[in-house]
Design a protein that fits this description.
Layout: H1 2-9, E1 12-18, H2 25-38, E2 44-53, H3 55-58, H4 61-73, E3 76-83, H5 88-109, E4 114-118, H6 120-131, E5 138-144, H7 147-153, H8 162-177, E6 180-183, H9 186-192, H10 196-199, E7 208-210, H11 225-234, E8 241-246, H12 255-268, E9 272-277, H13 282-291, E10 299-302, H14 309-313, E11 318-321, H15 335-342, E12 347-350, H16 356-363, E13 366-369, H17 374-387, H18 393-405, H19 407-423
Helix pairs in contact: 2-19, 5-6, 6-8, 12-17, 15-18, 18-19
């Protein structure tokens, strides 16, 4: 016990590798909040490596200095390399080699205890770098989703094509090379590491943790009836039924079905207002809404900063999430679900997405659409109406978010627990 306590308080240098840019929403809402939670582990020293698109054109020296300073004040040292996009496969291979060389040099100069790799590409960088280094830090493979299957399910790669098979071979190697794992859902754990459900370790004794996409509930704590009424007044939503959607469209995010659902809802209740918060292609979404008969007074399609999402959601009544049901989505934990619940909103979702079926059914915070038909949409809306007769529905949704997606009590706690188990191993 004394030895373990000593181990946990020793300085622990962590190099976190992320194949995204620092200012991207995913990094702002998922990566940095988790790093701040990991930093709470006594003695931890965090170094972050990101990949920035055309940094000389998109960043000024002053901006880089400012961001480095802000993160340094939080105990996070930030460095970056250039991200290359095209041609896709060769560009990624080039980035993997550059990233591996950067990490290898870092290992030659510094004593890094943990290489924390967010998804497959950074994991490959870390595994290669460690292979050729005299220092052998622990490699934590933060798998997140089923990356190869996601690309085939989204139609970006040919199913069972050469690229898919090559990445699956690389994935198999990474699963052997890694010392610990993170997955987003219990379903993903059942597929990859079923034995870890009871023990917390895989069959080789390596720690495994399920950590869904969590949110900082403090950002939603100020939501109350007064703020709701203020936002509804500001957006001219008095007397409207507001259905919210947050996130991207296209790929496995079902654009046509979501728009069709909104159209059916408006046909059922003319007061229906579509509130869509998305980062890209807002004009295309507006055009599709207008094709379904929505007027300018019936929708708001807007790109907002992650910090503003809570204030918009508080003006809503219900939220929708339609994602293509496919193999890869068993490993999916959509951030929007956590945000909806934190905002007190019941959810209308299709089946087969991560652990969502169990969540909605057991927590009684929404309904599942089994078919993408008008009849199913109307049935789901009726079920939501029945749920909303419960005056405690919003509080039940918030309680579900706290129990399952709280950044500190769930995400941070589980990451720190995983690190302790990882570092306690020889």
């Amino acid at each position: 016990m004394i030895q373990l306590q000593y181990l946990y308080t020793m300085p622990t240098k962590i190099l976190y590798v992320c194949y995204f840019g620092l200012r991207e929403p995913l990094v702002q809402t998922q990566v940095l909040p988790y790093l701040r939670e990991i930093k709470k582990m006594k003695g931890s020293i965090i170094k972050l490596l990101t990949f920035e698109t055309k940094p000389k054109k998109t960043w000024t020296n002053e901006q880089i200095k400012t961001y480095k300073g802000k993160l340094a004040d939080e105990g996070i040292e930030w460095q970056f390399l250039t991200y290359h996009k095209t041609p896709s496969a060769p560009a990624t291979i080039y980035d993997v080699l550059r990233g591996a060389y950067f990490i290898w040099r870092k290992l030659q100069r510094e004593s890094v205890e943990v290489l924390h790799a967010r998804v497959h590409v950074p994991a490959m960088m870390g595994a290669i770098a460690r292979k050729f280094s005299h220092r052998k830090p622990k490699l934590l493979f933060d798998i997140r989703g089923f990356f190869p299957e996601e690309y085939t399910d989204a139609g970006r790669w040919k199913e069972n094509g050469r690229l898919y098979k090559a990445v699956k071979r690389a994935e198999k190697w990474l699963l052997k090379q890694s010392d610990g794992f993170v997955v987003l859902t219990e379903k993903a754990r059942e597929i990859l590491f079923p034995e870890s459900k009871e023990t917390g370790f895989d069959k080789f004794g390596r720690p495994v943790e399920v950590i869904p996409c969590c949110v900082n509930l403090e950002k939603f704590a100020a939501i109350d009836n007064s703020l709701r009424e203020e936002m509804r007044e500001k957006l001219n939503l008095r007397g409207r039924r507001v259905i919210a959607y947050v996130g991207s469209f296209g790929g496995w995010y079902m654009t046509e079905e979501t728009i069709d659902f909104l159209a059916v809802a408006r046909e059922q209740d003319k007061s229906t207002f579509a509130l869509i918060l998305t980062q890209r292609e807002t004009e295309k979404i507006v055009a599709k809404l207008k094709e379904k008969g929505f007027t300018d007074k019936d929708y708001l399609v807007k790109s907002v900063a992650p910090s503003e999402i809570a204030s918009f959601l508080c003006a809503s009544d219900v939220a929708v999430s339609f994602i293509k049901k496919c193999y890869s989505k068993q490993a999916s934990s959509p951030t929007k679900i956590a945000e909806y619940l934190a905002g007190g909103l019941p959810i209308i979702s299709n089946e087969g997405i991560g652990d969502l079926d169990e969540l909605i059914t057991n927590d009684k915070v929404g309904t599942i659409v089994e078919k993408f038909t008008k009849e199913s949409y109307l049935e789901s809306l009726q079920k939501i109406t029945e749920l909303q007769k419960d005056a405690d529905l919003a509080e039940n949704c918030k309680a579900s978010a706290e129990r399952r997606f709280d950044l500190e009590k769930v995400g941070g706690k589980r990451y720190r627990s995983l690190y302790r188990r990882l570092l306690s191993q020889k």
